[in-house]
Amino acid sequence: MTAPTRTVRISHALLGAILLAGLPVGAAAGYLVGPLTRWLVDVVGGAPGPLRLLEQIPEPWLIGLGTVAGLVAAALLVAVIRAETIAVEIGADGVTVARDRARCYVGRERIASVFTDPHDLVLRDADGRELLRREADVGAARLAAAFEAAGYPWSGTRDPDEDRFRDWVDGTPDLPGEAHTQLRRRARARRDDDTDTASDLREQLQDAGVVVRDRGSRGQQWRPLGGHGAGRPTEPARSSR
C-alpha cells in the first residue's frame, strides 16, 4: 500500500483569522468616516471630497458597507498570501514544492538530507549539492514533523555545513575568476529581482563546484561543493594570477 502524500502549507487557521479580522476592521472604518470628516473640518477647515460624500450616508449603512469592504479586502489578502507562500507535497517517491504556478520535483532516491537554513527549506544529495532551496514560510516544526513521519532524513534547523560558508568578496583568490564573474552576474540579477537568472546561475556555480546561498544585507555566501558525510569536499580551483 502506497503511503499517503503529506502536504504542508500555510496554516488554514491563520488564513481564517486574517479573513475574520477584515470584518471588525471594515466596520470600524465605516464608523470612523463621520468623526474623521468632522475632525478634519474643525482642524484644517475641510475634508477630501470622497469623505464628505461618504458622510452623507447614514451611519448604519456606512458600518455595513465597511464590513463588506473589509471582508473583500481580507479575502484578497488571503489569496495573495496563498499564492506567495510555498506548499510542500511529501510523497513516497519524492518531494514537490509549489509556489503559485511554479512547481519543482525532487525524487526521493536523490535526497540524502533535508533541513531548514534558517528560513529556507533545503534538499541535499549525498555529495553536498543542494537539489532545492526555497523560502520555508510554512514553519520549520511542521516541516520536520511531516518529513520525519514520511521517513525522510531530516537534519534539523541548521545547515550541516554552516561553518564552511563564507561571505563572497569580489576578486578574492579563494575562487576562480569565472566563479567571480557568475557571482557578479547573480548579484545584479538579485538586485533586479530576476529570480530565474539568479536560479540558473546558482545551478551553474554548483556545476563548477561552488554552492551559493543568500543572506539578506550580507549578500551572497558560498562554500565548496561537498559536505560532512559526503566524502572529501571538492575545493574549487584557485585562480592563476
Topology, element by element:
Layout: E1 6-8, H1 12-44, H2 49-55, H3 59-84, E2 87-90, E3 94-99, E4 102-107, E5 113-116, E6 120-124, E7 130-135, H4 140-149, E8 166-167, H5 177-191, H6 195-207, E9 210-214, E10 220-224
Helix pairs in contact: 1-2, 1-3, 5-6
Region (Disordered): 169-241
Keywords: Membrane, Transmembrane, Transmembrane helix
Pfam families: bPH_10, CysS_C
Walk me through what this model shows.
The chain is elongated and about 70 Å long. The protein has three domains: 9-84, no CATH class; 86-160, Pleckstrin-homology domain (PH domain)/Phosphotyrosine-binding domain (PTB) (PH-domain like), CATH 2.30.29; 161-241, no CATH class. The protein has 241 residues and is an alpha+beta fold. 43% of the residues lie in helices and 19% in strands. It contains six helices and ten strands, in the order βαααββββββαβααββ. It has a four-stranded antiparallel sheet with strand order 1-2-3-4, with helices on one face. Strands 5-6-7 form a three-stranded antiparallel sheet, with helices on one face. It has helices at 12-44, 49-55, 59-84, 140-149, 177-191, 195-207, and strands spanning 6-8, 87-90, 94-99, 102-107, 113-116, 120-124, 130-135, 166-167, 210-214, 220-224.
Short note summarizing the structure:
The chain has 241 residues and is an alpha+beta fold. It folds into three domains: 76 residues, no CATH class; 75 residues, Pleckstrin-homology domain (PH domain)/Phosphotyrosine-binding domain (PTB) (PH-domain like), CATH 2.30.29.30; 81 residues, no CATH class. The protein contains six helices and ten strands; from the N terminus they run E-H-H-H-E-E-E-E-E-E-H-E-H-H-E-E.
